[in-house]
Known about the structure:
Blueprint: H1 3-13, H2 16-25, E1 30-31, H3 32-39, H4 43-55, E2 59-64, E3 67-72, H5 78-92, H6 95-122, H7 126-129, H8 136-144, E4 152-156, H9 162-169, E5 173-178, H10 181-193, E6 199-203, E7 216-222, H11 231-241, E8 242-253, H12 259-265, H13 274-283, E9 287-294, E10 306-312
Parallel strand pairs: 4-5, 4-7, 5-6, 7-8
Antiparallel strand pairs: 1-3, 2-3, 8-10, 9-10
Helix pairs in contact: 1-5, 3-6, 8-9, 11-13
Amino acid sequence: MSAVKLQQIFRTLGDPTRARILFLLEREELAVQxxxxxxxxxxxxxxxxxxxxxGAGLLRDRRNGAFSLYRFREPAAEAWRAAWALARRELAxxxxxxxxxxxxxxxxxxxxxxxxxxxxxxxxxxxxLRKAWGDELLRARAMGRLVPPGLRVADVGAGSGVLARExxxxxxxxxxxxxxxxxxxxARRKLELAGVxxxxxxxxxxxxxxxxxxxxDAALGHMVLQYLSSPAEALAEMARVVRPGGRVIAVDFxxxxxEWMRRELGVQRMGFAPEQVADWLRAAGLGEVRxxxxxxxxxGADLPETFxxxxxxx
Length: 314
């Protein structure tokens, strides 16, 4: 390796701020504003360091509507990996890193709280708001038909119970999970009034499901990933709670630029690349992974296409 290349490695990773940023982005995908909060630094300073790290090939970035999100990228060159491994060990032993991780935990909790507050505030009115989805009922009905009758199924992010009702009426035993107490109560009342039985309601977070290992035959996430701060963690949890041979299925929007959905519907993520979701399913240990776009949004509606992704527990 040339002296110039070695100097670049030392200069890049030897800066304390850049090392702190990588330490955080190795753990979580973050926006500039969130890094500013964690590090207590001005935007210009954070952006400058992000630019240098991206130029060194140490970051992945992607657009999420009007925002860019950043994540650590494992370096390809052995020298970079060795240097980062050394820097990571030193950072892990530094008391200042514990403060950074505590600040990161507060930022992520704030993310979750914003989503929970939104759904607690809309509660029973969600059915009228979700008309913006246009064909949500049709998608839920189609998704419900993927699961044979008689199975025990987790409906993750159950919302107002659209999918739970379809599954229960198809003969499944349903565990409806949502992090909003108001939404769960609205769903419970709605299904009781409709005379739908066979649905159990549990309050819990998608990243820490209130279900035991292998407790259900299938776990479904219908239009929920876009509301989560860490969709990969949620898919890993869904994989955990299905039995061997059980299925994890997710339906959501393909990556889009509809800012009105963030403003009016509280989404945290502006859709996904189906390939990314497939990678998350594989990382969760699932096999037979498929992810494909489902064309056919409501005619005349300003809606993106949806995708369906699924995998099977070994």
